[in-house]
């Protein structure tokens, strides 16, 4: 029986959402197309590329309709905890408006971007990000403020949603009563505050209580929202971060189209440890990556730094690099850095579904890929958003150290 369904606006966010549910002991699956949907698990998710689209409604709405047909209590539209969207690309507000226009949402849509475990907080509807030892407003956090496609020019998420056409958007303080939660008449959406995991659990309980009346309740948010819903549905405590997941692998391949300085530092750390680092825009990138892997070297093919930063079609190119290496039998553990890149690489591998095996860091799960191609079936894949993980993330991927393994379905 499906308790919760989610549709993610990118592939890295999709795996994070699935991990949040699985760590509470709920069974779950993530599919890459609605044709693979089923109702055998507590949670089912669909990964899309809506975040990179000028028309995210066209990508997300069919999936939101399809998962609702499974009869879940709640349907989450999963978005990034830094609210990556703009009126021109991946508009979250446009999806909220479509939920009402199409008659899917029958009440104000809760919007929760906070993910405290990941250093993302919302207070008075303004969003904040932990950067090192400081917490700064989203619009003062350089990676978000200076993003080339979805720059965060405003920290008040009500304003952001209004600019994106969501309609009238309210605000819900942390720890609000059920009466305050239900008193959202006239709002298209409301931004929920959260600073702690206790705030998430309290909100999750309110949402699931509401969902039992509305079924399904449509909601929008980050992995923090997935955590909130999971905590309200499961009696278990969440799995902690910090234990061994998979053990060491053979040579690991990293393909990175991320533009984040966090990813650049991770590449630098791996290079200092002796990894081969190749330029995605260089000649014969596929051949050079395969030669490096044949030598048994952990290898990174990237456009994050150097002269070929952001070459045209980098996601498609990195997909070809990854698929060639996997089908040549040179790698059984792959790391993909970058939300948009992840969708293109997973498509190149012909994946139909992914399941979570564990996580290397908050927001960086390791998944096992299911595909019709035997060379790709069973591949271990970590899909990493640009700002996810410490400097040793890729080194941990090679060693297989991170969080405890999620419970196995069934």
From TrEMBL:
Protein's UniProt keywords contain Transcription regulation: no
Residue ranges annotated for the Four-carbon acid sugar kinase nucleotide binding domain, each copy included: 253-394
UniProt keywords, alphabetically: ATP-binding, Carbohydrate metabolism, Kinase, Nucleotide-binding, Transferase
Key word Membrane present: no
Coiled coil: none
InterPro entries: 4-carb_acid_sugar_kinase_N, 4-carb_acid_sugar_kinase_N_sf, NBD_C, NBD_C_sf
Stretch forming the signal peptide: none
Transmembrane segments: none
Family statement: Belongs to the four-carbon acid sugar kinase family.
Protein name per the record: Uncharacterized protein YgbK (DUF1537 family)
